[in-house]
Design goal:
single chain; alpha/beta; Rossmann fold; UDP-N-acetylmuramoyl-L-alanine:D-glutamate ligase; 7-stranded parallel sheet; binds ligand NAX; binds potassium ion; nucleotide-binding; metal ion binding
């Protein structure tokens, strides 16, 4: 499990630890770890000696880390150039160390467009130490020309120090560039006032913004340097499951010799309508490969379902009359008519402790009825909204854009308000349960999953996981992880180039990724 802590918790832990260490020791630990990662990256394509490294150093501790690491690389023979973005306030110790090691130093004002392009064009590795966890808002105007040049040059490896400068360390938010801010003709909205890194070397613990889009896209691969903070950190704010975590759960629900289909769990699917039978088929496809022993379907697409999935137990009545299940999935393709409302109400009238997943049209109906239909009544329910549905559930003051921009806050608020677990879909899928527990971030997935019906497969898969047992949060997190991997597998196969996929391809890839996770579960793998 990877973890992340809020900036406030990191600051507190740093203070506690610093009080017990000689002055500057913590920064030396950070710089040593950072330099070691840079040296390793450089060695992947040769030696450290003679390689051109450019250090972008701001005014705070982040710039200090970068300068000390630059000094260490210069000490190993690299040609290191620092550009001070706030020369009067550069870290004195770091600057002296870099100079003493033979590094060259320029001030931002001396590095105009052409000079910056020449310098960054020669760089093989750029250390982004403009601003770290002390950053507020997007990068300021004075550093943006340099950041734009960096974006444009033949790509050197960009290594962000602690966090990519300009990314909000707590939320992953970035400030978009306006058209006026892009004199190089870059279209508005494409750029952000933030550095885009290939690797982020973060200190002590992960920061939430490194794992949640758009921050995650700016962070690249995240490497953790241990600086001894752990004993002082307290509970994590974010958990990022890895293969080993998911493998543990999948092994736990694997069939045993004495298992029969009922003991493994039966998942009920109330989805699809005369108008949208496809959603029923895709939800059943996800459920059938999702880890339950059997799938029951209740609804208007019974005939189509049994033709496509002959193993399904089907009926065309209401869920309550369909027979025993261990979890219901309600919503995909249900449409919004009176009959759909009866189906949702029928599920809401089922035994309180029975796990129930509400997706798509069922979410619209839950939003109309309000949080009280779930809160305190259905402790094992799971909601699976995308940003638009989440905004509708949250109501006044929320829009899809605000949910996208404040994903962590939105998923927490939803879970708290409805008193149930919530899986918020999107380019970063997040899960939360009511209370102050950590938010789970799903690290798998691909943009190719943004295809019609992909959410129906996820709903079925998550329903099957609910039926197999455990908490709604655990079931949802496992489903999101497998779904993301299956999307990648379907889109990329064994290679690096993606291609368009259908939701059916995602369902078809599930057994393969299931095997992959369980068999490689001892290592991290993501
Ligand atoms: N406190 C310590 O001993 C340690 C600090 N560490 C490093 O120190 C960093 C935190 O240092 P600081 O608290 O000094 O803060 P930062 O260095 O992250 O940033 C603060 C400085 O950046 C400027 N700034 C803020 N927002 C900006 C923006 N949008 N655009 C441009 N400049 C902006 C501020 O004027 C301020 O001078 C961590 O991220 C980490 O890299 C590590 O070395 C570990 C130990
Ligand atoms: K940085």
């Amino acid at each position: 499990m990877r973890v992340a802590h809020s900036v406030a918790k990191v600051r507190e832990a740093e203070e506690a630890l610093m009080a017990r260490l000689p002055e500057g020791a913590l920064m030396q630990r950070a710089a040593a770890g950072l330099a070691a990662v840079c040296a390793r990256l450089l060695r992947e394509s040769g030696r450290v000696r003679g390689r051109v490294v450019v250090v972008l150093a701001g005014s705070g501790g982040n710039g200090g880390d970068a300068l000390y690491a630059g000094a260490r690389l210069a000490g190993r023979g690299a040609e290191v150039h620092a550009v001070l973005t706030a020369p009067k306030r550069a870290h004195p110790g770091g600057l002296a160390a870099l100079r003493a090691a033979g590094g060259r130093v320029a001030e931002l004002g001396d590095v105009d467009g052409a000079a910056a392009a020449a310098l960054l064009g020669r760089a093989e590795l750029v250390l982004d130490g403009i601003v770290g966890i002390g950053g507020r808002g997007g990068l300021r105007d004075e550093v943006m020309p340099l950041v734009r040049v960096l974006r444009g040059v033949r790509r050197p490896l960009v290594v962000a120090v602690d966090v990519p400068s300009g990314v909000d360390a707590d939320t992953g938010a970035v400030v978009p560039e306006t058209a006026a801010a892009g004199p190089d003709g870059e279209p508005a909205g494409l750029g952000a006032r933030a550095v885009r890194a290939d690797v982020t070397v973060t200190f002590g613990t992960g920061k939430p913004g490194l794992f949640v889009d758009p921050g995650a896209q700016h962070a690249g691969a995240v490497e953790l340097v241990d600086i001894g903070l752990e004993p002082w950190l307290g509970a994590a704010d974010l958990l990022i499951p890895q293969h080993a975590d998911v493998a543990r759960r999948l092994r736990g629900i694997a069939p045993r010799p004495e298992s029969d289909k009922y003991r493994r769990g039966v998942v009920g699917i109330a989805a699809g309508s005369a108008r949208y039978p496809g959603a029923a088929l895709l939800s059943v496809a996800g459920a059938a490969r999702g880890g339950a022993g059997a799938v029951r379907y209740a609804g208007a697409a019974a005939r189509e379902v049994v033709r496509a999935h002959p193993e399904t137990l089907v009926s065309d009545g209401l869920p309550g009359g369909a027979g025993r299940v261990q979890a219901w999935v309600v919503g995909p393709g249900l449409s919004r008519d009176e009959h759909a409302a009866r189906i949702v109400d029928d599920v809401l009238a089922l035994e309180a402790v029975l796990p129930k997943l509400f997706d798509a049209d069922a979410l619209a109906l839950v939003a109309e009825r309000g949080p009280q239909v779930l809160r305190g009544r259905h402790p094992n329910a799971l909601l699976t909204p995308h940003a638009g549905e989440a905004a509708r559930l949250l109501g006044e003051g929320w829009s899809a854009a605000r949910v996208e921009a404040e994903r962590i806050a939105a998923v927490r608020e939803l879970a708290g308000r409805y008193g149930v677990a919530v899986l918020l879909k999107g380019s970063t899928t997040l899960l939360a349960a009511p209370g102050d527990g950590p938010v789970h971030v799903n690290p798998t997935g691909t943009g190719w999953l943004a295809t019609a019906g992909s959410g129906d497969v996820l709903a079925g898969l998550a329903g099957a996981q609910l039926a197999a047992g455990g908490s709604a949060l655990g079931a949802g997190a496992t489903a999101a992880y497998l779904h993301g991997l299956a999307g990648r597998r379907a889109a990329f196969g064994d290679g690096a180039v993606g291609a368009p996929i259908t939701a059916g391809d995602v369902a078809a890839a599930l057994p393969e990724v299931w095997r992959q996770v369980v068999s490689s579960g001892a290592s991290d793998g993501v």
